[in-house]
Amino acid sequence: MPTCGSCSRRHDRHGPPALDDALNLAGLGEALDRKVKGYSMGMKQRLMLAQALMRKPSVLILDEPANGGDPGEVRALRLREHLGELARRGAAVLVSSHRLVEVQQLATHVVVMNHGRLIAAGPVGELLGGAGTYRVQVDDPEKATAVLRALPGVASATTQRDEIVVTAPGVLSRDLVRALLTEGIGVKSVQQEGKSPEEAFLTMTEGAEEHAAR
């Protein structure tokens, strides 16, 4: 009978087919024999995530998935990669979060709510006012420029001093990062030109409040 990662507990072979993958993604393989009441907040959050993922849902709704996680967990690409893959396979992935940078990196479309009212909705790039231009810092600019130029959707990639300026309307930052990491290129930072998520949110909510006060 199959085991889950390094855990000694064995599972019935008739369990959900994606159980092991879900537990590995959540990083809970070594903690399966521990009582849940002894889990940290972050571990409990990851356990609920594993429960949701193990049956490969066609609709997945996540409320603050990074809540309770340490900085390493929040920055980890594995969850974003997995959710992105679910979406590419046709699943609807809905994420509610106050971590606006995470939303920017994960989402293709955004709905902005303020005090229970719908403020704005649309593609991430349009709401942030960006023109699909990114500034990317890597450990091998020459190789990275060649990789990015060959990526579908990238109109141009040029080296300016210690960074690469990439024009790629409709391409998400996570897709740029994935392409670079796949080729073994270390990514130091990726910044999208235009408003930051926080600036865009404040602009939209302040405008809505001014309109409501009239």
Structural commentary:
The strands form 3 sheets. Strands 6-7-5-8 form a 4-stranded antiparallel sheet, covered by helices on one side. Strands 1-2 form a two-stranded parallel sheet. It contains 9 helices and 8 strands. The protein folds into 2 domains: 19-126, 3-Layer(aba) Sandwich (Rossmann fold), CATH 3.40.50.300; 131-193, Alpha-Beta Plaits, CATH 3.30.70. It is α+β, with helices and mostly antiparallel strands and 214 residues long. Mean pLDDT is 75; it is low at 1-14. The protein is globular and about 55 Å long. It starts with 18 loop residues before the first helix and ends with a helix.
Q: Which descriptors would you attach to this protein?
A:
single chain, 214 residues, Rossmann fold, Alpha-Beta Plaits, 2 domains, 4-stranded antiparallel sheet, two-stranded parallel ribbon, 9 helices, 8 strands, globular
CATH architecture of the largest domain: 3-Layer(aba) Sandwich
Low-pLDDT parts are 1-14
Under CATH, the homologous superfamily of the largest domain reads P-loop containing nucleotide triphosphate hydrolases
Shape: globular
- Residue fraction in strands: 15-25%
Major β-sheet annotation:
4 strands, antiparallel
What's the CATH topology label of the largest domain?
Answer: Rossmann fold
Q: What's the number of extended β-strand segments?
A: 8
Separation, N- and C-terminal Cα atoms: 67 Å
Specify the number of helices: 9
> What does the average pLDDT come to?
75
Radius of gyration: 20 Å
Strand order of the largest sheet: 6-7-5-8
- Give the structural class: alpha+beta
Element-by-element helix/strand order? HHEHHEHEEHEHEEHEH
- For the record, what CATH class of the largest domain applies? Alpha Beta
